[in-house]
Every structure is written in structure tokens, then in C-alpha cells.
Amino acid sequence: MVWVTKEHFSITQICMSGQCFRMNPLEGEKAGGVGLVAFGKYLEVFQNGNEICFDCTQEEYDTIWKSYFDMETDYAAIIGRIDAADSYLLSAASFGSGIRILRQDLWEMIISFIISQQNNIRRIRKCIRLLCEKYGEKRTAQNVVEYYDFPTPKALSEASIEDLYACNLGYRSRYIHETANAVLYQEIDLEQLPTCSYSDACRELLKLCGVGAKVADCICLFALHKMEAFPKDTHIKKVLAQQYPNGFSFERYSDCGGILQQYLFFYDLNKKMKNK
């Protein structure tokens, strides 16, 4: 077990923020915690106030999860930069202040956000679970929890489009099949993308079947940690139109726009619960 004290960290808000689809609330005696699969590992996280418990070794936390959860970024400082006159963004940041931008596996994010198109979070989770169970490697964690690794490009390239349809992927089945082949045969070099600029990374990602501007931005933000990325889905477009008719201050927040986008997205998605 590794215990960390951290402000501006909520495992529940991170779990429900729409950036990770293999992070799920635990049940039974572990209720209140979250279980997740990433980088071939299974992790359980529990939290009491600002005290966070990672059920792993110190070495695993230092080499994987510390970076994954972006633990060294000062989110308080970013919130402190918000324009005092922007009451909506201040409310959104306060409401979702425990969200952090995860550093996730690039290949997994490519497929996950191709699946996310015209889809809701619950259905995306189900599609990815079926895909992992059918094409991912089965593993067993130290606490005997069984889980599945994310399918490799080779595994998905060998799957027929018809078989992918069985994972409830619909028209996205062809996108995934063609993208897997493009990565497998190095029509796009994923290893170079982390060193690319945001614009160059987007340009490369747009070469993949099924990847448009919004999906490319999601991949840039949630895998490559390009904070300039500001994905605009229907929720965000609605917020920008209603709350910022004269334009959002993208230039002011150019180095942290992705974080603010998550606050706005989470707030728009969940603020009704706040008012109950």
C-alpha cells in the first residue's frame, strides 16, 4: 500500500470524468474505491479526504501511477489563474476540482476514442470491456482479481470486421480494423508522437481511419498530455455557445486549456445533481 496526501484529487471525479473507460467503482466491502486497468496492470485506489491509498508497491507507484495520475502538476495554481470575472468557469473548476488529466496508453486511447464517437459513456465502457475480453490477454493481479489487458494492434488487425461487430461496435468496427492495420504496418509511427508538437501530433492522428478533429484532440489530451488540446464534443459546443457567445479565452489558457475543458465538461454533465 502507498499512501499519498494530495489536494485537488478525487478518484471518484476522475473515474466519472469521461477520459478513462476501464476505471470502475468497486462494490461490496470495497465500495467507495475504484479499480482500474492500465499499462497491463490492475490497481485499486481508495480515498479519505486528501488521503489517497494506492494498492501497489512503492516502486510501481513511482514508475507508473505517479505519472499516470499527473501527481506532480499543481492544479491549485492552474485554478488560481482563472479570470475572476469568469464566474461560470470558476464554478466549473470548483465543482470538478478533483479531476486530473491522466497520462494513458496511446494505442488504447486511439481505439477508445474511435469507439466514443456518437456514443455515451456507459456504452463505451461496455464496448471496450467486450473488446478486451475477446481479444486481450487474461491476467491475474496479486489480489487474485482477474482482468484483461488491452488488445494489441496485431490482435485487432487479425479480427474480422464481422467479429468486431459482435462487440457492439457497429460502423466503428471498420475504423478499428483499418486503424489496427495502419499501426501494425507502421503507416503511422506511434513512438514518435509523444515528441511531436500538438499540431503535428494531430496531423498524424488524422491519417487514421475514424479519427476526426475531436477524437484527435482527445487522444492528444488524454494520452499525449498535450494541454493545448481542447476537445469540442456536443457538451462543450453547447457550453461555449451559451456561456461564451463572444468567444472563450483560448490564448489566455493555451498551456492548460485541456484541464479547463475537463472542468467544463464535467460540470455540464453533472451540475444538475448539484442542484438537487
**Which percent range fits the helix content?**
40-55%
What would the average pLDDT be, to the nearest integer?
A: 94
- Please state the overall shape, judged from the principal axes of the Cα atoms: globular
Percentage beta strand: 5-15%
Strand order of the largest sheet: 1-5-4-3-2
Low-confidence stretches: none
CATH class of the domain at 106-222: Mainly Alpha
What Rg do the Cα atoms give? 19 Å
Q: Which fold name fills CATH's third level, the topology of the domain at 106-222?
A: Endonuclease III, domain 1
CATH architecture of the domain at 106-222: Orthogonal Bundle
Task: Write down the secondary-structure element order.
Answer: EHEEEEHHHHHEEHHHHHHH
